[in-house]
Amino acid sequence: MKSTTGIGLESVQAVYSGPEGDLWELVMGEQVHIGGFTSSMDLAERAGIGAGQKGIDLCCCNGAGMRFLVRFRQVAAMMGVDATPTVVQRCRDRCRSEGLADRIAVTEADVLHSGLPDGQADFVWGEDAWCYVVDKPRLIAEAARLVKRGGTIAFTDWVEGPSGLEDEEAERFLRFMKFANVEAIDGYRDLLRRNGCEVRIAEDTGRFAPHVDLYLDMLNKQLTYDALKIIGFDLERMQAMGQEMVFMQGLAHEGKIAQGIFVATRR
Hints:
By secondary structure, the protein is α/β, with parallel strands linked by helices. It is about 45% helix and about 20% strand.
């Protein structure tokens, strides 16, 4: 696991309470994860998530993942957990406006201390968000605590790729993304096993590099004005962020960062 210092929950809250979070939603869509609808459907199908189940979304952000699950997988009920007040309120507002508030609830809490009861969920869900959590061993332990025996932990996440990051590359990437660390696929597999789970899927989705290409193409060809408006028409800031995105694009194409998909069953 590559890591850095000085980045924690407050750093992530600042991102998703301000213009940077709005920029991510602009280029990635409401679901704010690589692959959007296609990625969500792939994860749900491979995890066997469907009608009548009840789940928990750790780091639920604006709740788009939960809305996807109740609309397109007929999940009976979802509980989201997120520590950023701005996105928690956005989640509640959007669920209410879409007529889904009776099936989706959200609690404002650190996912490491969710306060939810043991072993009640049919599944625990996450999409490209656990990379923001500093203490990943404790996060996986919390997911295992929340899901019932025989239940499923299903998530995608940004991970270190098979080529590996050099220390300087990792430092630059982590500081730009506001990640305290980045786990590898084998690292997540080991954490799941240590918490009493049988790992069914732990692999690279292959989506990362082409989607970073897409985001940069959109920003350069279509969404430049929209992005500038979000950051107060600050061209220097836009150029600096663009340089970091291009750096990340290079890492992705070199196999140094990736999107991992994980499905495990709690024994």
